[in-house]
Amino acid sequence: MSCGEPHETDCGEVLDHLYEFLDSEMPDVDRDKFQHHFEECSPCLEKYGLEQAVKKLVKRCCGHDDVPADLRAKVMGRIDLIRSGQTVPEHDVTKAPTAPQES
Q: Which of 2, 5, 24 is nearest to 13 (CA)?
């Protein structure tokens, strides 16, 4: 996604790392770049606001539920695959494989 305007930091880079920004998981220098980008790019600011709202809603609705360790590990593994640019399996990695049914 791009708003079509030139920016010091590309819209695609900002959106690719949006959750790192939302979760404060990036260096302050990068956070400052992203903050500056949001100040001058309304489409990215809108996307940021939407994702921030979703994150708050999920926390409010599900924030007290314990996540099984194996599910968390599978989800984190999938996130790592996506971040590294590797091909992500099309099947649902959060479900246990099912045994073939006998006829």
A: 2
